Amino acid sequence: MPVKITLNWSKLFGYENWADSNIPESAGVYVYLVRQNDSSIKMRYVGICDNLRTRCQDHMGNSEENECIKTNLAKYAWDFRYALVPIQADREDAEQALYDKYKPECNKVRPNGSGRKVPIEIEGL
Question: Does 125 map to a domain?
Answer without folding.
Answer: no
